[in-house]
Amino acid sequence: MPCVQPDGTLSTTGRLMLSAVQTNSTVEDVATTTGMVLYRVRSVLRELIEAGFVVEANGRFSQTEQGAAKASKPG
Question: What's the number of CA atoms in the CB half-sphere (13 Å) around residue 70?
């Protein structure tokens, strides 16, 4: 099940993951914060990157401005 819907809304998992990625988070940091297994964290992070909500640099993940705005919206 995708975490980013075609209309740009986030699933519960997508919202949880986006909230867990603050700045310079590793995959392991996100897995620990969310309680999710690494393979699922990697999969969701790829979706969030493709949607423009997260960026990756040197194995560390951060929210983009668009991601931060999406994470701060209720629901």
Answer: 28
